[in-house]
Amino acid sequence: MLNPEVKKMANVLIIDDNKTTAAILKITLSRQLHHVRRSEDIRDAIYPADSSQPDLVLINQAAKNFSGWKTFNYLKQIRPSLPAIVYVLEHPTTSGAQWICKVVDAVLSEIMSDSEETPCFGT
Questions:
Q1: I want to staple 39 with a disulfide (CB 3.0 to 4.6 A). Which of 44, 69, 119, 122 is the partner?
Q2: How confident is residue 50, by pLDDT bands cut at 50, 70 and 90?
Q3: DSSP structure class, residue 119
Q4: Residue 85: phi, psi to the nearest 5?
Q5: Count of structural domains within the chain
Q6: Among 17-21, 23-27, 58-62, 106-110, which stretch is predicted with the lowest mean pLDDT?
Q7: What is the domain-level CATH number for residue 78?
Q8: What is the reported pTM?
Q9: One biological-process term from Gene Ontology (predicted)?
Q10: Which of residues 114 and 51 earns the better pLDDT score?
């Protein structure tokens, strides 16, 4: 469950080539009213096709088509203030998604707080 202090919902981008893993995360976060979209292309985080910049990027470390860590490092070079989390879900289950969402909730709470300071994770 999201922190009750969170005032608005986040725009979350999942970069993952595994549709099942991404779907579990998307369903779990969407139930908490976040806008979630999936992509296999990091360019969607850097240059989104629409005007909605992501508030948070989730990157699958275990992707078959790209390196999660290389993607993270590249993203942090191009958009250093954009919060990003690298995750691994080898056997996606609902309970696994709930665990990862607790970590995401903590990051989203900080992102969505009224603080003027922009969080930067992993730099």
A1: 44
A2: low
A3: P
A4: -125, 130
A5: 1
A6: 106-110
A7: 3.40.50.2300
A8: 0.66
A9: phosphorelay signal transduction system
A10: 51
